[in-house]
Amino acid sequence: MISTLPTTHRALTVPEVMAALHLSRFKVYDLIRTKQLPSFTVGRARRVPADALQTFMQHQLEEAA
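^ thats the sequence. predicted structure below, dont judge the formating
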């Protein structure tokens, strides 16, 4: 389903999340801001745990069903 998602990464950059979800930068940061998509920062770098992205997508699928 998320073939653009690097399988070896445990923490994804915002551009990687954008590519995986086919969403804009604004929308990804909106999901982070509203705490729908967990993230953390290291210095100035924002990262999204890969398992958090998987959980987010699973939750979206369950809501849509």
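The first strand starts at residue 11 and ends at 12.
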